Amino acid sequence: MNGPLVLVVDDDPDILDAICDILDGEGYRVARARHGLEALERVDEEEPSLILLDLMMPVMDGLAFAQALRARPLARRIPIVVISADGNPQRAAAVGAQGYLAKPFDIDALMSHISRMTGGAPLHG
Amino acid sequence: MSEKHSDETRAAERERRGGYLGYVAHEVRNPLSTALWSAELLARMPPEERGGARGEKLTAMCLRSLGRVRQLVEDHFLCERLDAQGLLVRPEGLPVRELLEEIAGRRSLDVGPVTVDVAPSALVLADRVLLDRALDALLAAAGRERAAVQVTGREEGRQVVLRLAGRAPGPHSLEDPRRGSPADPKGRSLALAVARRAAAALGGTLVVEGDAFVLSLPRAEAYTASPDPAAHP
Fold this sequence. Notes:
The complex is a heterodimer. Chain A is an alpha/beta fold. Chain A has a single domain (5-117), classed as Rossmann fold (3-Layer(aba) Sandwich). Chain A is 39% helix and 18% strand. Chain A starts with a strand and ends in an 8-residue tail after the last helix. The model of chain A has no long low-confidence stretch (mean pLDDT 90). The longest helix of chain B is centred in the first third of the chain and has 42 residues, at 3-44. By secondary structure, chain B is of the alpha+beta class. Chain B folds into 2 domains: 3-83, Helix Hairpins; 91-222, 2-Layer Sandwich (Heat Shock Protein 90). Helix content of chain B is 49%, strand content 18%. The model of chain B has no long low-confidence stretch (mean pLDDT 87).
């Protein structure tokens, strides 16, 4: 599978499983992290094309992660889509995100965001 | 109290309540998301694939998520009813050790091992349903991430004092559920909010002492609260 790599960052294991299942089914490669610190490690290892980022997480929250990401010259341009249950799109702007999806969002809305930001949907398989 | 001070108090209360309700909404939206997504993914699957490994995984996720939503909704409305003093409390003498052991058995998959060191003769006078919810919530909070929980109890004057030691409570965990209930895949984010209100409704107190929750309840023979039946809707 050669689709774009999407990093999903969320502390809820079911959210991670569900989104990874959705993306995998659409032909994307997927990496996952349970908090910001783990996400920084994934970024350094795998250079994702896009990051789906929850905000409220233990260890390192979404805002701190975004600030640390922007300080990395090689990673600062990776687009971020905030996926949050807080219902406040302004917080996406606060982390410099390019998109915002309020949980529970539609699967089609998620795919539309990802396709647009990664330059088109991958070929299945 | 001056009018200005009163306005400030009301504004602070509105802000506190708004923050709390925002937290409740946040906690419900996560499992609601996974319930909806897993159901939609199942609906999109060809029928012949639903019985396969992926179908089973999605079905389990859907059921687990709905269970979390149910727990959160039940806890939220219990908190609201207790805040509104809209629950009729029916006190009766209850053996607290027996109740703790029953709840620990019921929750054996959710919390770590629970040891109960409370005299079998210790009786509290409390509403059975409410006490069950309070102890259940405290065991969930102390036993989160499957931590072992040790419950000790002693009679002190007119009270029975229970100490539940397990996963250390966060600072200000009783006042602010956002601090006391880290992300919880079991849907118990409102456990401490329930326990704090239930303790008060039972005529008792709940505090954090060191690494433990300490719940004090009236002994059976010392109970003096007089619930107001007219408050029951």
